[in-house]
Hints:
CATH class of the largest domain: Alpha Beta
Number of helices: 6
Shape: globular
Helix content: 10-25%
Order of helices and strands: HEEEEEEEEEEHEHEHEEEHEEH
Number of strands: 17
Radius of gyration: 20 Å
Largest sheet: 6 strands, antiparallel
Low-confidence stretches: none
Number of domains: 2
CATH topology of the largest domain: Peptide Methionine Sulfoxide Reductase, Chain A
Mean pLDDT: 94
Distance between the termini: 47 Å
Amino acid sequence: MGNELFAQSPYGPLEPNEKKVLLEQDTEAPFSGKYHAHFAQGIYCCRNCGAPLYFSDDKFRSGCGWPAFDDEIPGAVKRLPDADGMRTEIRCAKCHGHLGHVFRGERLTSKNTRHCVNSLSLVFEGQQDGRLQRAFFAGGCFWGVEELLQRQPGVLAAISGYSGGTLEYPDYQQVCSGTTGHLETVGVVFDPQKTAYEKLCRFFLEIHDPTQKDRQGPDVGSQYASALFVMDQKQKQTASDLLRILREKGYDIQTRILPFQRFWMAESGHQDYYRKTGKQPYCHSWQKKF
């Protein structure tokens, strides 16, 4: 079970009712949890160890009485056969704390998946004042951007996905058609005590060519455009300042600053692509610009 980890929560000691859920696989009463009807922008983390588990983008109204998500941060959730021999239990992959159960086949969303999670297993981190924060970068093929960003100190997760378009639940083929308006985008979860949004932006602008329009190296198409999807005015100002510096240095910047609206996680085959294949990023390379 890894009980030694249960004393290391960034949120303080577990309350008795939280212990019953996280340690003893208990279930809170339906409609009793503080997150079952909660839909603010941010990240849902493990109450026990603080690991990021779910993006608010993937939370939906299921009517079941518990928080429902149709996707998880890749690698964050572990599935196990339930003791009842019928259901599939879900636990935090880092500390093995009990989260709830996962169900398929209900057709409640296009992903046909429902993570039924106890509120007591979660802590919500909002964008403005959360312990963890998010940032979204589009710079060509998301495989390379994801791989290079997740190597950076202070980055807890880097996830390939799609942002900026109008189609709900887009898939890779639809995005590649260039008709959905989505860009291949990487969502990053980072610890602001260990790194800064500005530092991540600078790195992002140095691992791809922000002077290319609707392409990046060998990849051509509107889905490969360079963009910074900003979460708030502070991120917008930081991004604007960095692009201004590059323009003053003579770069013909094509990178756009766009308001963040929704992030759709890409299919599992696109997550951690280079780590799965053992290949190295071929369409991104570092070049000092600042």
